[in-house]
Design a protein that fits this description.
The structure holds two protein chains of two kinds. Chain A has strands spanning 4-7, 10-13, 19-25, 31-38, 42-49, 56-57, 65-68, 74-78, 87-94, 100-102, 106-110. Chain A is an all-beta fold. The chains are: A mainly beta, B mainly beta.
């Protein structure tokens, strides 16, 4: 049972480069989320998707785009990476009003 | 997040009880959660409470919810060294799951 799978686990980017973080869940969950975690700031919601075909901005959406490709997959794209986007990124999924399951995180460094 | 607030640090002696507090702003939150994160790992759900409940107990964990004051607490009885971690409070409102900044709990011998 894979749960929530994020790739890659680690990434180093140069300022201005683009990349896509992938997330997939095999639990048939409707809702999926992307968070970033920074020291002393907890998890801040970047974007979420309540169901396939919908996406909504969270607290800190600037500099990111998302795509809910299908029910299983929710990707996060950085079009032009900046050092301020150095963080640990977590993807999560949940069915309505129940526990959210988290991936293991992607540690991104932008130099 | 700005909708959920927690104190940042708690130090507790092994064997004592730990109490971690959280306040949230949205009165229409349906579920409230406590997650645990160990170093270098993802988040693990500890327990959750539905918004129409006042209390939930699960082994060493007790969750208290004061809906009037929008205050949530997590009590860990007989705290052990393995309980050292960051604890996050979260609330779910209209599919949006928001987290506090996390409370780092350090258990000392």
């Amino acid at each position: 049972n894979a749960g929530v799978t994020q790739t890659p686990k680690f990434q180093v980017l140069k300022t201005g480069q683009s990349m896509t973080l992938q997330c997939a869940q095999d639990m048939n969950h409707n809702s999926m989320y992307w968070y970033r975690q920074d020291p002393g700031m907890g998890l801040r919601l970047i974007y979420y998707s309540a169901s396939e075909g919908t996406t909504d901005k969270g607290e800190v959406p600037n500099g990111y785009n998302v795509s809910r490709l299908n029910k299983r997959e929710f990707s996060l794209r950085l079009e032009s990476a900046a050092p301020s986007q150095t963080s640990v990124y977590f993807c999560a999924s949940s069915s309505s009003n129940t526990e959210a399951f988290f991936g293991q995180g992607t540690r991104l460094t932008v130099v | 997040g700005e909708d959920v607030e927690q104190s940042l640090f708690l130090s507790v002696r092994e064997g004592d009880s730990s109490v971690i507090n959280c306040t949230y702003t949205d009165s229409s939150s349906t579920y409230l959660y406590w997650y645990k994160q160990e170093p270098g790992a993802g988040l693990q759900l500890l327990t959750y409470i539905f918004s129409n409940m006042d209390m939930k107990q699960d082994q060493r964990l007790t969750v208290l919810l004061n809906k009037k004051d929008k205050h949530l607490s997590l009590r860990i009885a007989d705290t052990q060294t393995g309980d050292s971690a960051i604890y996050f409070c979260a609330d779910l409102n209209d599919y949006k799951l928001s987290f506090g900044a996390g409370t780092t709990v350090t258990v000392r011998a």
